[in-house]
Amino acid sequence: MIVRNGDEATAVISPPKPPPVSVAASLRTLSIFAGSVALALVVHLIVARNEPPLEMRFYTIFLGSVLLIAVITAPAQILWARLRQFRQNLHPILTAAAFLLCLWEIITSGVRLLPLPYFPSPAKVLHSLITDRMLLFDSTWHSLLLLLSGYAFGVIAGLITGLCIGWSPPVRYWGMPLLKVVGPIPATAWIPLAMVVSPSTMFSAVALIALAVWFPVTMLTASGISNTRASYLDVARTLGAGRGYLIFRVAVPAALPNIFIGLFMGLGASFLTLVVAETVGVKSGLGWYVSWAQGWAEYGKVFAALVIMAGFFSTIMTVLFKVRDRMLVWQKGVIKW
Question: Which of 137, 225, 235, 252 has the fewest CB atoms in 10 Å of its CB?
Answer without folding.
Answer: 137
